[in-house]
Amino acid sequence: MRRTKKKSTGAVLGLGLSAAVVAALLTPGAAANAAGNTLVVDAANSIRPVTHVGAGGLYAVASDTDPAPGLLTPLRLKQHTQPAPGVQQLGNGATVPSGDILKTAPAFTRDGAQAYARMPDVYPNFPYRWISWADWTQKIDTMVKARVDARSTTNINGWELWNEPDGTWDTAKAGPFLDGWTRTYRQVKSQDTTTPIVGPSYSRYYPDLMRDFMARAKADGTLPDVVVWHELDDGGWNDVDEHVADYRSIERSLGISPRPISINEYGSPNQVDTPSVSAHFIAQFERTGIKDAERAYWYESGTVGGLVWNDRPTGSYWLYKWYGEMAGNMVGVTPSGDLDGFASYDSTRKIVNVALGGTFGDNAVQVKGLASFGSQVRVTVNYTPRSGRMSNVAAPTQVSSTTATVVNGAVTVPITNQDHLGAYQVVVTPAPGPVTSYQQTYEAENATVVNASILPSASASNGSYVGRVDGLGDGRSNSFVDFVVEVPTAGSYSLTTRYANGGTTTSTQGLAYNGSDFSTVSYAPTGGWGQFATSAATPITLKAGFNVIRLAKGSPNFAGGTGFAELDSITVTPR
Asked: What is the Cα–Cα distance from 305 to 319, expressed in whole angstroms?
């Protein structure tokens, strides 16, 4: 978290774009057209399952009802960072503390998301004002006990031990940060051996600090489960790939197994309200294989860094809505100049979904890998503007919807007179439309996976499945998968599960939806792990719009499943 700072005019207009683009924008009478860029999307080149890694926010949720329930569900937000239990932090002019992770946890569960608990937010000021080690130790004990005692609370998946220690750790009073990390880590672990530890959460990527930290943490046995740093500089998205590569080289040189990476604050104050910049960040996050990334908090909690205002969408909201609609696998995207984006291919419906932004003039998107779509395709182009964080946009604007001829398995889509601050969506389907009018099959690896693992398999329907769904216990150790499912009408539906059971006896899991009571789903043996079959249909009652379906080995208010089963996908169809 940072206080808002004034930026120069150049920084505000630049927004991380190239010098050439900025110069053209500042020059009266500049040519209306850029040189012309073509973003290339290869639908045949899958790079990773869709997990919406860039969708989340720091202090995104102010309370269980702020933002309004249901507003964020379509975004399929993956990961948040919230203040730890007992928060006293008064950020950015707030008059009361906001976002206590235990109080806001129902909102995460309702939306199928998770959250890290930021521990130093029990201090009322930022930068944090250190009192003493006795005081900090007492604070740690209180926070951890509150979480451990909340046995029915799920979807909290990390303790963030400190925040931006390069600027907020009081070395004069508390001693060196590396000593403080070790001491804090051990204090937390003495009471909670289950919840992952995340850090060191530097305010930016510092190669030397990161190397020293990882070397010391390895020597002390205090390596974080998730490695965190922030990307908050103007144009910071340009450096994400270099930072990830440097960090991975540190791991290799120190003999440390690869850690998941979280960028749990991204975007400068003038960037978070700019859809094109968010598109650049997300593109980098997807290409570099990070675990999660959260929009920075510069202004108000409960707005996801400006995605909503007064419980209604802003312009940036729609970029994340397009992201939330992505299913199947993320596919290869090759940027061109300042034009960049990210894309998915859902093979169950034959939909290529592209989101992009970053330059002006007349440009294009080429989508390859469409041989199975037929000789013609339907191409729809949508647009959302940079509205600012306090202006609402009721819906994106449809720019065009046309039929195009596929040539050598590809189609080229023009983006004319492009707005360099806004973002665009390109959706390509077979000419008659998607295979189904709405999504009916949901891959387990696209869902929120808690205390289980996404694993590759050529036998899985999308090339991946969820295994090691083994955890039983309390809200910290239970294993389950939360699917966010959208249906057009309320009513009765049939749920089937594609699964593998390599045991010799029938295994079971719990099934609940929208907070309902649990029922039991049975999985007969399939003859081996990695050999998938389809379960018998289970009737469920869903509401129109978005629903969260949980399949669990263990979960609050559920006695626990038996045996073991791996999850490939679920299919929801009308009865």
From this structure: 13
What pTM value is reported for the model? 0.93
Helices (H), 419-524: none
Question: What does the chain come to in residues?
Answer: 575
% residues pLDDT > 70 (the chain)? 94
Cβ neighbors of 27 (< 8 A, separation 6 or more) are none
Q: How far apart are CA 521 and CA 494, in angstroms?
A: 12
Cβ(493)–Cβ(570) below 8 Å: no
- What is the C-alpha R_g of the chain? 23
Distance (Å, whole) CA 356 – CA 331: 14
Cα 465 to the center of its chain, rounded Å:
19
Gap between the Cα atoms of 523 and 508, Å rounded: 6
Can you give the pLDDT at residue 233? 87
Give the helix, strand, coil percentages of the chain, each rounded to 5: 25, 35, 45
Torsion, Cα of 420, 422, 425, 426 (10° steps):
-30
**How far apart, in whole angstroms, are the C-alpha atoms of residue 49 and residue 328?**
6
Distant-in-sequence, close-in-space partners of 6: CB < 8 Å, separation ≥ 6: none
C-alpha span between 130 and 282 (Å, rounded): 35
Provide the percentage of residues in the chain whose pLDDT is more than 90: 89
Element (H, E) at 26: helix 19-26
> Can you give the pLDDT at residue 515?
87
Q: 438 and 485 in contact (C-beta within 8 Å)? A: no
Other beta carbons less than 10 A from residue 388's beta carbon: 15
The band of 89, judged by pLDDT with boundaries at 50, 70 and 90, is confident
